[in-house]
Amino acid sequence: MFSQDSIYVQVFRSKFVVRNVDSGEAIEISRDQSYASPRMLVADFTMAQHQLKEAVKSVRRGLRAPAILIHPMELIEGGITQVEYRTFVELGLGAGASKSSVYSGAPLSGDGIKKAIREYKH
């Protein structure tokens, strides 16, 4: 009950996929395309933060602020820029995370997500 949830967020152009690794509960949130950009995953930070915060609330189960791992899934050819990286970290913190980290690579599973959160160095 007092443990910290591990939340895995996959960011796509048109949706967030948010999963509580500990409970297995997941939700998919369609993103408001009126604020979309063909060049960036997060074109309107305030809207994205609001949508992610609501999604995280719906999968949280503990009392402590969760650790969130954000995984951009599209528009990352050539790597994640410093500006994008900072945007994703701030997005996670704004959604209520005690710790927000960013991952780039193949999709992760439960133990891989927890390991990525644990080993994250900022």
Mean pLDDT across the residues is 90
Count of folded domains: 1
- Which residue ranges are poorly predicted, with pLDDT under 50 across at least 5 consecutive positions? none
Q: How is the main sheet built?
A: 5 strands, mixed
Order of helices and strands: EEEHEHEH
The count of β-strands is: 5
Oligomer kind = single chain
- Strand line-up in the sheet with most strands: 3-2-1-4-5
What does this structure look like?
There is one protein chain. The protein is α/β, with parallel strands linked by helices and 122 residues long. It has one domain: Nucleotidyltransferase, domain 5. 31% of the residues lie in helices and 22% in strands. The protein contains 3 helices and 5 strands. The chain has helices spanning 45-59, 82-94, 110-119, and strands at residues 6-11, 15-20, 26-30, 67-72, 99-102. Strands 3-2-1-4-5 form a 5-stranded mixed sheet, with helices on both faces. Helix 2 links the parallel strand 4 and strand 5 (99-102). Helix 1 (45-59) crosses helix 2. The model has no long low-confidence stretch (mean pLDDT 90).
